Amino acid sequence: MTTESPTSKGTILIIDDEKVILDLTSIVLRNRGYTVFTASDAITGLKELEHHQPQLVLLDYMMPVMDGLTALREIRERFPDSYVIMFTGKGNEEIAVELMKAGASDYILKPFNNQDLVERIESVLRIRQVEIRNRELTIERERLLAEIEEWNRQLEARVQEKTEALQRAQAEIVQSEKLASLGYLSAGMAHEIRNPLNSITLFAQLIKSGFDDPERLGYVDKILKEVDRIDETMRKLLDASKRSRYQLSEVRIERIIEATLEVFKPQALLYHVDVKRDFRTIPPPLQADPSEIEQIFTNLFLNAIHEMRDGGVLTVSLDHNDKELSVRVADTGKGIPAENLSKIFDPFFTTKSSGSGLGLAVVLRIVKTYQGRISVEKSDASGTTFLIRLPLAAV
């Protein structure tokens, strides 16, 4: 592409098979400050146009080999920034309409007046400048609109992210308040209930010692069994709401998982549950109470196996990075109904026909004790995956 002179008013290509027209028009336009190129036929003109890419083309309508109308259409298709003024010796209306439809910016009848030619050229170049500028502004506008749209998408995504984080934080606050309320309630209940339970146990044992009748002894045993059941419920309630005595030591979490899985081995065999381990990396020891960590996996494995009474796969995955360890406990049960997901950590919430509904509440309380997090990573018809994250520097 030829570079236009800084002092040039514009670049013009003249395509005409009449040498006189070429020479005279070139002289007139160069004298007016334009950079001018010439071609004596349309084929040569297209090559010149491709090389120089002028702002304007003066194109003769009647030419051999390739006529002006055909050349006009090709120029408009291939070089849309080069505007075209047609020279024609035929001044009828049909030709004018045909030329304008094909993309000509103007047409001039031969012979033409030099001043009229220059004025027409200046007018077309002004229009070209405005149209190209408008096109650039349109492109810039579309770019800015696309950029604004992308910003809006990012903003919406950030708002959604922050909203979800806020909802999670609010849910955690509500859950903490529930556990705190449960703690106050259970502490009082434990004192008020266990005292009469102790009396019931004592009197039942005294009654039992005075009976020889097996049937009556069986009744007393049932009373004592129910007392134990109430006491066990109170213990679970206290475990869910407050931390009992604990002793920190270095805990190898993979060993806790293995030991807990070993305890559940008979149940897994009974219900045809295949146990898979995916210990990708072994984390360093965790400062924790071993019984508390064991309680986490006891409750999770118990729930998982309960969901797979007809067989399935229990997968335990272990991994860690520089800051925290992560454990995934996945089953292939029926999944947790969507309407229950927000309630599964609530004390006493259960969908089982038996059970206290305190298992996951206990898990949550222990995990939060170690500044960790527990969530349902996935739950659908293919099963449920719980994800536990514990900081390696937990205290």
TrEMBL record:
UniProt KW Cell division keyword: no
Catalytic activity field: ATP + protein L-histidine = ADP + protein N-phospho-L-histidine
Keywords: Coiled coil, Kinase, Phosphoprotein, Transferase
Ranges for domain Response regulatory: 11-125
Residues of the Histidine kinase domain: 188-394
EC number annotated for this UniProt entry: 2.7.13.3
Any one GO molecular function term: phosphorelay sensor kinase activity
SUPFAM superfamilies linked to this entry: ATPase domain of HSP90 chaperone/DNA topoisomerase II/histidine kinase (SSF55874), CheY-like (SSF52172), Homodimeric domain of signal transducing histidine kinase (SSF47384)
Protein's UniProt keywords contain Coiled coil: yes
Pfam families in UniProt: HATPase_c, HisKA, Response_reg
InterPro entries: CheY-like_superfamily, HATPase_C_sf, HATPase_dom, His_kinase_dom, HisK_dim/P_dom, HisK_dim/P_sf, Sig_transdc_His_kin-like_C, Sig_transdc_resp-reg_receiver
Residues bearing the modification 4-aspartylphosphate: 60
Residue ranges the record marks as coiled coil: 127-179
Protein name in UniProt: histidine kinase
Species of origin: Geobacter pickeringii
Lineage per the UniProt record: Bacteria, Pseudomonadati, Thermodesulfobacteriota, Desulfuromonadia, Geobacterales
